[in-house]
Write a structure and sequence with these properties.
Blueprint lengths: L1 H6 L3 H21 L7 H21 L4 H20 L3 H25 L9 H25 L4 H7 L2 H13 L6 H29 L9 H20 L1
Helix pairs in contact: 2-3, 2-4, 2-8, 2-9, 2-10, 3-9, 4-10, 7-9, 7-10, 9-10
Length: 236
């Protein structure tokens, strides 16, 4: 869905999907992993829901691209959390599972005369380079996640949809009507609430509050939520 969207002038919609992905992850944490949320986290989820409704009203239909991306990526992160397999091994397993159908699809394209890979040197080189361009940043992210506080990692994750939004507007010249812009502004407000709550949780953890204090349960939930977000991003 992401690749189709970028190639058909919907890059801004994909950015919205990745903006609301943290909120979807929070909901999975609550309803599947039975995590408990603090007030600001619930407020962020509610504001995010309002953003989706505003976009739906502006489009005249549900923003399906954003919802599919956020829902599928959130589900992927949840599965990664449940199986608890290290990132390198998981990537090897997933790549192996995708290899056979991918090769089969290439053979099918070749039989129908529409195969591009291997036909033109420029496109073939770009497709081959897509591998390291994808893997090297993931390796760098994994290394950074082991060295930086989770609150900092969470904040940096918002850079990707911001850059996607800018590419859609400035490079692909996609239109951003008032209703769509309003939806973005609302979801950014939700992310501000989520960020403030994460920073508060990091501050409490830094003060080393003892188990049994009033914030211990909520901090534990925040830590599990941050872990879910980090695993999802590392495995993307």
């Amino acid at each position: 869905v992401y690749i189709w969207s970028v190639n058909h002038g919907h890059t801004v919609d994909t950015a919205f999907g990745y903006f609301i992905n943290p909120l979807v992850t929070v909901l999975f944490g609550v309803f599947v992993l039975r995590e408990r949320l603090r007030r600001l986290q619930w407020a962020a989820v509610g504001v995010g829901a309002v953003a989706v409704l505003v976009l739906a009203a502006g489009y005249g239909k549900a923003p399906w691209i954003a919802l599919v991306l956020a829902g599928s990526f959130g589900t992927y992160g949840l599965l990664k959390k449940l199986v608890a397999v290290p990132a390198a091994e998981a990537m090897a397993i997933e790549s192996s599972l995708q290899f056979v159908p991918a090769v089969g699809y290439l053979v099918w394209l070749g039989a129908h005369g529409t195969l591009d890979f291997g036909q033109h040197a420029g496109n073939t080189a770009l497709l081959v380079l897509a591998g390291p361009v994808t893997v090297l940043p993931l390796i760098a992210f994994g290394a950074a996640a082991n060295r930086l506080p989770l609150s900092m990692v969470g904040l940096l994750q918002f850079l990707a949809p911001i850059l996607q939004f800018l590419c859609g507007v400035l490079v692909q010249h996609e239109a951003v009507p008032p209703a769509r812009l309003a939806g973005f502004l609302i979801v950014w407000a939700a992310l501000v609430l989520l960020t403030v709550d994460a920073l508060r949780g990091a501050r409490r953890s830094g003060r080393g509050e003892l188990p049994g204090q009033s914030t211990s349960t909520s901090d534990s939930s925040s830590s599990m939520h941050d872990s879910t977000l980090t695993q999802a991003s590392t495995s993307a």
